[in-house]
């Protein structure tokens, strides 16, 4: 018995199997696209922890909870979505160029999250930062 005969025996056509499979991965089914920025962001980083030591140096950055958290060359804390708005590749922070850079196709974004060079077509989601003592809160 081949595949079509097997499906026919079950009363199912090949087309309905394909349709069911595709519906399961559709964004309209409630799933989140890989390029969607994280929502409801609200977390705190302890700057005394060794895992967060990169944020003690101007130009340092780390990623956490789908967010790039960086300390600019001027010493300000900034936070944007980690994934590129083009095809969701993880971004890097380049303090010397004051930008976020995508190694995949070369898109660049300013430190304020705005798109500065394609092929991405939209800006990054930016999160707020608040430093209290040695605790850095990142939130939407
Ligand atoms: S995935 Fe970033 S530019 Fe294409």
Largest sheet: 6 strands, antiparallel
CATH superfamily of the largest domain: Rieske [2Fe-2S] iron-sulphur domain
State the shape.
Answer: globular
User: How confident is the prediction overall: mean pLDDT?
Assistant: 82
Low-pLDDT stretches: 6-34
List of distinct ligands in this structure: FE2/S2 (inorganic) cluster
Described by its quaternary structure, the protein is: single chain
Q: Give the % helix.
A: 10-25%
The number of distinct structural domains comes to 2
Q: Distance between the terminal alpha carbons, to the nearest Å?
A: 57 Å
SSE string, helices as H and strands as E: HHEEEEEEEEEE
DSSP, total strands:
10
Content of β-strand: 25-35%
In the CATH hierarchy, what is the architecture of the largest domain at level 2? Answer: 3-layer Sandwich
Helix/strand/pairing class, anyone?
Answer: mainly beta
Notable traits:
140 residues; mainly beta; Rieske Iron-sulfur Protein; 6-stranded antiparallel β-sheet; 10 strands; binds FE2/S2 (inorganic) cluster; Rieske_2Fe-2S; 2 iron, 2 sulfur cluster binding
Q: Brief description of this entry?
A:
This is Cytochrome b6-f complex iron-sulfur subunit. This protein is mostly beta strands.
Per-chain topology:
Elements: H1 3-10, H2 14-23, E1 42-46, E2 61-64, E3 67-71, E4 77-81, E5 91-94, E6 99-102, E7 108-110, E8 115-117, E9 126-132, E10 135-139
Antiparallel strand pairs: 1-10, 2-3, 3-4, 4-9, 5-6, 6-7, 7-8, 9-10
FE2/S2 (inorganic) cluster is lined by residues 84, 86-87, 89, 102, 104-107, 119-120.
């Amino acid at each position: 018995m081949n595949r079509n005969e097997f499906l026919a025996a079950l009363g199912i056509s090949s087309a309905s199997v394909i349709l069911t499979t595709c519906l399961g991965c559709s964004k309209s089914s409630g799933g989140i696209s890989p390029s969607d920025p994280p929502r409801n962001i609200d977390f705190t980083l302890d700057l005394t922890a060794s895992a967060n030591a990169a944020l003690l140096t101007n130009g340092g950055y780390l990623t956490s909870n789908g967010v790039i958290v960086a300390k600019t060359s001027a010493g300000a804390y900034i936070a944007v979505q980690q994934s590129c708005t083009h095809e969701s590749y993880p971004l890097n922070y380049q303090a010397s160029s004051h930008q976020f850079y995508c190694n995949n196709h070369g898109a660049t974004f300013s430190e304020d999250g705005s798109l500065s060079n394609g092929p991405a077509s939209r800006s990054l989601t930016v999160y707020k930062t608040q430093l209290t003592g040695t605790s850095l809160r990142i939130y939407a």
